[in-house]
Amino acid sequence: MLTVHHLNQSRSQRVLWALEELQLPYQIVRYQREKTMLALAALKKIHPLGKSPVLEDNGYVLAESGAILAYLQETWHSGGWLKPQG
Asked: Which of 24, 31, 66, 73 could form a disulfide with 82 if both were Cys (CB 3.0 to 4.6 A apart)?
């Protein structure tokens, strides 16, 4: 099962969109920003800088939305429609 560590007001929206488009099963672990707009310490346990999104796939942990989208494209959908054609 894919797990998305989702911080509100972050680029993880892109990953959630891609997972829906690919119709992949996933779960979301939600984190709310502090009033200072910083990430919670709990998210820093997953990513040392508290960045989001983070994707977990059977023990493989990947950060940064662009890298995650490329991973989803290469791993779960070889049709090429998540990336530009040409």
From this structure: 73
